[in-house]
Amino acid sequence: MSEFFQSRVDERSALPIFPTMVWANQLKADVAGRINQVFLELIEAARVRNPQLQPAGKWQSDQRLHTLPALAEFVEIVREGARAIMDAENLSYTDIDITGCWANIGFPGSVHRPHSHPNNFLSGVYYVKAPQGGHTIDFHDPRPQASMIFPASTKLTHFTAQKVTLNVRAGTLFYFPAWLTHSVLPNAAPEERISIAFNLMFPDYVERMSPPIWEGNLPITDAEGAPSEADPGAQG
Fold this sequence. Notes:
By secondary structure, this protein is α+β, with helices and mostly antiparallel strands. Helices cover 20% and strands 24% of the residues. Strands 1-8-5-10-3-2 form a 6-stranded antiparallel sheet. It has a 4-stranded antiparallel sheet with strand order 4-9-6-7, with no helix packed on it.
């Protein structure tokens, strides 16, 4: 900062008024080891049952892993972590449930192109195997207009970067808004990378959360004098 400016300003601050949150967790080693072993056994059993699949590119399991009894501990960790986020953000809700959960097995060279997870509130990813060279995830700036002017910089910051790369390891658990675009660079490791993706949504969204959160000042009644019932599908 120039001496000229500093001598004329009493106070200054930078206000991050619209942050995009990514919540990072690292499971305890014994917990991660136990859960990862279950995932590895399930994936190996599926591999044996499907010998026609070649170990190349990327495999994705079906999206119902959260219904398997063997993964009950993982499911409860994911749900409790999501509830903690909701509580910390002072959001009103009755519960939040996993709507889909699947395994991504990325062999050397595999990529995951930029994408988001529509029709959910939160999404997340957990890492079973993240070898060196396959141990990152990229989150992309959700503001398309931010790239209209992009000056050269001597060092990227959270203010100037158009994407943020985070390192991961086995046992890392991320949550993020389901609308946040993310991707994975090519797996440069000589072994496979295994991650578990999941989505979360409010089970009572239509009944409890989709109606307007404001009240009008003109009560409307039917011919019998009873208040009209709200139509969840009606638009103002």
